[in-house]
Amino acid sequence: MQEQSLRAAGGRAAQLAMRLAHFFFLLTRPMTLGVRAIAIDAEGRALLVKHSYVAGWHLPGGGVEAGETCEAALARELAEEANVALEGPVALLGLFLNRHVSRRDHVAVYVVRRFRVTGERAPDREIVAAQFFAPDALPADTTRGTRARLAEALEGAAVSTLW
Q1: Residue 110 belongs to a domain with what CATH number?
Q2: pLDDT digits (tens, 9 = 90+) for 91-100
Q3: N or C: which end of the chain has fewer CB within 10 A?
Q4: Mean pLDDT of 58-74
């Protein structure tokens, strides 16, 4: 009888330990949320950026800060990465799971058609270049995820839930 009680207590302790480990994981590895913009100019060209720390051309964007809305983060990132100021509403294309970063990374992608370029973007430690490209003339090293999002937004391709 005493042996069964010890086993039961050990099982409860193991369950508690697993719950605590899961809670610790959630605290130390929370879900991340980012935003990306498909900014299309009057000529139908898409804005792409080239980072100093990762290969290829990408849609401009970045992380959503605590207390910040997705649209506020989008406006901030466009201003920081490409000297672009929003001048009208944006449209959510979709919310994507980006398993290439982590199993908990999500990216909200918005289509932006009303904006103003406030000046030329000089290269710095983060952004090497920001430039508009015709959808049929993207640089060879444009990332697969960027190409997929552009096809969804501009060519009517089925919208995936995965980056």
Answers
A1: 3.90.79.10
A2: 999 999 999 8
A3: N
A4: 97
Residue the block writes with tokens 């719950």: 19
What pLDDT digit, counting tens, does each position of 116-150 carry? 999 999 999 999 999 999 999 999 999 999 999 99
What dihedral angle (degrees, nearest 10) is formed by the CA atoms of 79, 82, 86, 90?
-110
In a domain, 122, yes or no: yes
What is the 3 state secondary structure string of the chain?
A: CHHHHHHHHHHHHHHHHHHHHHHHHHHHCCCEEEEEEEEECCCCCEEEEEECCCCCEECCEEECCCCCCHHHHHHHHHHHHHCEEECCCCEEEEEEECCCCCCCEEEEEEEECCEEECCCCCCCCCEEEEEEECHHHCCCCECHHHHHHHHHHHCCCCCCCEC
Q: Tell whether 35 and 94 lie within a shared domain.
A: yes
Statement to judge: residues 122 and 83 lie in one domain: yes
Q: Does one domain contain both 52 and 14?
A: no
